Each structure stands twice: as C-alpha cells, then as structure tokens.
Amino acid sequence: MEDRFESLIEGLLDDQFASTADFLSPDLVDRLRTNLLTRLHQGQMHPAGIGRAIGFQTNASIRGDLISWLDDAPEDEAEQEFLALVREFMAYLNRTCYTGLNALEFHYAIYGPGSFYKRHKDQFRSDSGRRFSLVSYLNEDWLPIDGGALVLSPEQNGEKVIFPEGGRMVLFKSDEVEHEVLPTVRPRMSITGWLKTVSY
User: Fold this and answer.
1) Is 168 within 8 Å of 21 (Cβ atoms)?
2) CATH among 3.30.43.10, 3.30.70.250, 2.60.120.620, 2.60.40.10 for 2-49+62-196
3) Are 147 and 183 in contact (CB under 8 A)?
4) Structure pTM?
C-alpha cells in the first residue's frame, strides 16, 4: 500500500495532482456503490450546496449532485474499511511530508444524467482547513462516451481530463487546483472528501 501512497504523493509534487487506477479494490467499490444506491432509494441523498454557514445555497446551474455525509465512525464495514484506508494515507502524509493533517470529512455523491459542477476550488474563503481533496470513484464499466469527466486545471501544466472509472483515486490540493465536473450521460458515483488541518 505504501507504493500506492508514494505514487499519489509523487504526482502531487510533480503536477499538483495525482490519479491512480484501481486504488480501491473491486469488492470495496461494489459495496460502497451499493451503500450509495441504498441511501438514494431511501431518500437520504440531498442536493449539494455551495458556500458555507450563512453563505450556503443550492444552485443547480452551478452544481447538480446529490450527497450524503459519512459518519466519522460508521457502523457499515465497507465505510469503516474505506475510512481506515484514508486515515492510513493521512498518517503516511504526515509522517513523510509533515503536513499536520488531523481531520477528514467525506460524503457520497451522485450526479444524475445531465448534471455537472462548474469550475471552482474546494477551499472556503473563510476557512483554510481543507488541505487536500480526495475523490474515489464507484462507477461500473465507465466509458469516455458516458461523460462526467473531472477536469483539473493545475497552474503549471494545463488542463487534465480524468474519467471516473471505478476504483480510481484522485488527489489534489484544495486551495490550489481549480476543477470542474463535465455533464454526465449516466449516473456518476463517488466518495468525495477532504483531508484537513483543524484547530481544536
């Protein structure tokens, strides 16, 4: 697993982002996708917003996904396994890159056909806690014609297009890399979140 962690870190250092295929096992992807769809069918996925606190708003002309937050200590075994892997990576980042990360937050996300998320950064103006954005895709048999690509715009290397194939992990700095989700043709599923530095 440390080889996969190093691959992510090297990409981050070289290109401001990293993308690794098959980071999550097919079994874990299947179980997490089932969880997402169960939440969707039970009405637990809600329109995502932009901004925070009093500036929070939903606006489908900017962002069209539905989300559902993961608990920090979930009862579901697949979510436990996923968060344990993320915490292991976060500890590795702290140990090797002295990042000082001490918190995380993740949610399931699904984009219905035709939905998208316009270009933005993940860092709030009023809160610099989000350090790294981490996206793990849960889709099955994704093809380029299905749309829904993540387009990253790192400062020095031009646009990078990443298709949301199941098991792929994408990492980038929340306050540096602008990105967008292009319109999707079929439902597009992921777990998306942030590695954070929080003052207690």
Assistant:
1) yes
2) 2.60.120.620
3) yes
4) 0.91
